[in-house]
Amino acid sequence: MNCLCALATLATVTTVAFLVEAWLYRRRLNGIPIRVHVNGTRGKSSVARLIAAGLRGGGIRTCAKTTGTLARMIFPNGEELPIFRPARANVIEQKRVVRAAAKAKAEALVIECMALQPLLQSTCELQLVRSTHGVITNARADHLDVMGPDRLHVAKALSGTTPVAGTLFTAESRLDSLQVMQHAAQDRGSEMQIITQNDSAKITEEELAQFSYLEHAENVALALRVCESIGVGREEALRGMWAATPDPGAMKVHTTDVQAMPSFDSGQPTEPSVFHFVNGFAANDPESTEQLWETAFNRFPDSDRRVMVMNCREDRPDRSEIMGAAIGKWSAADQVVVIGTGTELFMRAAKKSGVDPSKLVCLGEVESPEQVAEVIACDDALCEPGVMVMGIGNVKNGGFALDQFFEEHSNWIPQRVAIAQQEAASGRASVAGAS
């Protein structure tokens, strides 16, 4: 009898504690009047940062949380702190984000959806965020093992973060995906606003040039529409966006002077090759990656050589296979360097898609990013004055390190080139001595 009473007391206390915690959480959440939930296949982190920066530019105390390349909490003064994760990423961490935003007296919270499972995406919205403004950047064929089997199923899963009695914004352009999102908006009593190509065209080249990285016009147009709906004007929002720190996975460009081989006739070093490294690792699906590749391909028309670096992950086999099957249809690279784990799937698919096998170089797991750069530099690249290198696929397990390498080296002499220079100098000295 005493055991039963103890169990009943424990159950009652646990239930009361749970209800009190739920009440406190809901109170904190409701204390933040503007809540923007950002979802989508491509560009979530960038758009979340743009919206938050635009709102700050309009004088609204705004916190943001991104889960892109590196999970970050951004405070009203623009300060960023990493999200502490004692174990694997868990959607419950969104509750800690709300607590921090409430403590910072935020008037607005822009939070990136971190869930993949369709049910969890809906749960995050209905239980944890309860957004006033929902954003779906786009719906593309990625994470098909979780949200698939096809693109429309992805659109349906992403629509789980549609707000109740709020506004849903999207830059998706396909009619069938838009119909899925419209159905979700109607079901939850929300208005839907679509950012079209005409809206994106209004973002001028001069405005895009103000960003410290390569930003897409549709992302800016989408963020501006959200800011406008909250009461922040275009100029104020843009000024805030230009001043903001980009996501670590943003499409940044690093320029490096790479010392070429010496001329064996004169013994003097030739003019260095200029390497433009473009970080395109954040694009996870073939459609987005193709857009980035073509943008970079055309951004540097003076490049005499274009090199693609594909970073594979064995825990993302579908991505490797889909990317390999797609690149044969893109503007051809002069060299495709494949790194990471599970590279066989990509190599096989790339060859089937029509990529010249002689242009494929598989390195697998590498000890340092310099090894990758050495392979590029020791090909025919140093004979060319301009080289464009773009990383794609996955930023983890090698991609981020390669980006950091090019960021930290504005001037670089490859080790193998240095050895060749020494050997050439030694050979000239021997010839001189013999004469």
UniProtKB/TrEMBL annotation:
Domain Mur ligase central: 38-147
An annotated Gene Ontology molecular function: ATP binding
InterPro entries: Capsule_biosynth_CapB, Mur-like_cat_sf, Mur_ligase_cen, MurCDEF_pg_biosynth
A Pfam family this chain is assigned to: Mur_ligase_M
Span of the signal peptide: none
Protein's GO biological process: capsule polysaccharide biosynthetic process
Cellular component annotations (GO), alphabetically ordered: membrane
NCBIfam families referenced in this protein's UniProt entry, alphabetically: poly_gGlu_PgsB (TIGR04012)
Name recorded for this polypeptide: Capsule biosynthesis protein CapB
Species annotation: Rubripirellula obstinata
